[in-house]
Design goal:
Subcellular location: Endoplasmic reticulum membrane; Membrane
Number of strands: 8
CATH class of one domain: Mainly Beta
Pfam families: EMP24_GP25L
Structural class: alpha+beta
Keywords: Endoplasmic reticulum, Membrane, Signal, Transmembrane, Transmembrane helix
Distance between the termini: 124 Å
Helix content: 40-55%
Oligomer: single chain
Protein name: GOLD domain-containing protein
Strand content: 25-35%
GO cellular component, one term: endoplasmic reticulum membrane
Length: 234
């Protein structure tokens, strides 16, 4: 009885002390340590929310860049409420801006939830451009891959490979910052287009109201000067 109790305590201790990501040396781990990048546009309806789940391994660099391109309907607020939650449902970061950039280190392996909330516009939808993904710096290799690599590559080629990987990561980070700067400038362009559309429709509405009121005034004046033939004029 004492032996069984001891085994249960030891097994439960191993479960809670284990990392959320399996070891890379395990045969059936099936881990993919690569760069996952996505970019697309999505329309968020009025007072609505769109959520996405992105899988990430532990010890990765998670990034998210977003920009509100245009608004429709009676929407006049370009801000977007963005939240990112961990696989346990814990809020990691939130932003309420038209253009934003989010970066953090993934501490737990699992599906991270990205939610886009159009809570600032109750009567108009918005279109959002997204660019997000996970970058793993210092790629790990299995024992078998390391043995095969040692047979094929010498120390010089291995050093060149490491340098090329670091260069690729640095170039990607430079591109990411450039993309964010380009989105910041593009926000002003879409804001001008939105204002132009608003001014055009508002001017057309005012012109129609002015013409309609003038026509109604003309009808009223004509009825004031209308005379009945059966009655003599003054």
């Amino acid at each position: 009885m004492l032996l069984n109790t001891l085994l249960i305590v030891l097994s439960s201790h191993c479960v809670w002390a284990r990392k959320s990501e399996p070891s890379i040396n395990e045969a059936d781990a099936g881990l993919f340590r690569g760069s996952d990048k996505y970019d697309f546009a999505v329309v968020v309806p009025a007072a609505g929310m769109e959520c996405f789940w992105h899988f990430a391994h532990q010890s990765g660099s998670f990034y998210l860049i977003y920009m509100v391109q245009w608004v429709t309907g009676m929407a006049n607020d370009h801000r977007l409420f963005v939240t990112v939650n961990s696989p346990q449902g814990i809020l990691i970061v939130s932003k309420n801006k038209a253009v934003g950039q989010i970066n953090f280190q993934t501490e737990v392996t699992g599906f991270y939830r990205i939610c886009l909330g159009n809570h600032n516009n109750q009567f108009g939808s918005i279109r959002v451009f997204l660019n997000f993904g996970v970058i793993y710096e210092g790629f790990e290799k299995s024992k078998k891959e390391m043995e095969e690599g040692e047979k094929v590559l010498n120390s010089t080629l291995a050093g060149i490979e490491v340098s090329v990987q670091k260069l690729q990561i640095q170039i990607f980070h430079m591109w990411r910052h450039y993309n964010f700067a380009r989105m910041t400038k593009g926000k002003d362009h879409y804001l001008l287009l939105s204002n132009l559309n608003y001014v055009t429709w508002w001017s057309a509405t005012q012109s129609f109201v002015i013409l309609l009121s003038g026509y109604l005034q003309l009808l009223v004046l004509k009825r004031l000067f209308h005379t009945d033939p059966s009655r003599p004029r003054c």
